[in-house]
Amino acid sequence: MSVSARLVLDSFSRWRESLGALSLDGRRGFTTLAFDQPGSNGLGGTPPRFAAWAEGREGIVAIESQHGNHLTPKPAGAAASFFESVQDKRSSSPLLGDMKRLARAADYVQLDAVALVKAYTGLARAGREATLLYLYWEPLQSTPESLRHRTEVAAFGKAADLPGARFAAQSYPELWASWEKQAEPDWLAGHAATLRLQYEKA
Length: 202
Prior knowledge:
By secondary structure, the protein is an alpha/beta fold. It contains 7 helices and 5 strands, in the order H-E-E-E-H-H-H-E-H-E-H-H.
């Protein structure tokens, strides 16, 4: 199991005990929480897999998880082959048009734009209101790589405008800090503190 997969599993598996109290991107009332969930986007190639998938009466929140890989520069032009393979009508959407341009220009250095585009376009086909929540680990002390990654995440968020799908992003430390401030469930603050101790030193 990758560290990214372990990170989301360690963070969210205990929520199955209190699923009704889980809040993600302002959505509540989840009835299903699954991990390593397969998806489809109709774009060809390897389909997306979501690190976690929460679904309930208010819609879907699918999680993309990263630990460390986003702090390694991506090879120039590595994304071009994926975007050139897009065949269906989404190839003319503002998001994919912008992603193709960014891939050609190598504007994304730290962010794995291909993985996010696959996940985001797949979620847009879910048929319900949905959010792609991108969770990522950061070192305690900012680095040039982590700062650039944040800038690229913000740029992706501005481009992500497909109907029915929203893009949101948060670092794991920010998520855990918000959990430590919550009174309920009664196990949550301690759980968040444990995650901080385990992963913030990584």
